[in-house]
Input
Amino acid sequence: QLQLVESGGGLVQPGGSLTLSCTAPEFNLKYNAIGWFRQAAGKEREGVSWITSSGGTTKYADSVKGRFTVSRDNAKNTVYLQMNSLKPEDTADYYCAAHRSDIVVIQTRPESEFEGWGQGTRVTVSS
Output
């Protein structure tokens, strides 16, 4: 069963960095595109970054472009989200989810098409 697990969240000061990880203990992710999403308190969930199954193509929301980097190591069955220059507005619960098609990195697709949503990992950016 496809079930993703996020980790790596925590409290960081503005300008700091964190790296989030996403893995699937009982599923091989190498054929799936992966999306990172976040939900701040009182706001709707939004897409942050997407990566193809091979890792060759990535996409970012404008709000994180130039600060976040998504990558994956299929040998370790893990997808990463490196977050630099963090801002208070990056505070949110971060989730990863899988999609069966790499098209999600090229074309915006509804969240309902993503599978295996994890429990999320909380990122708090505060001094």
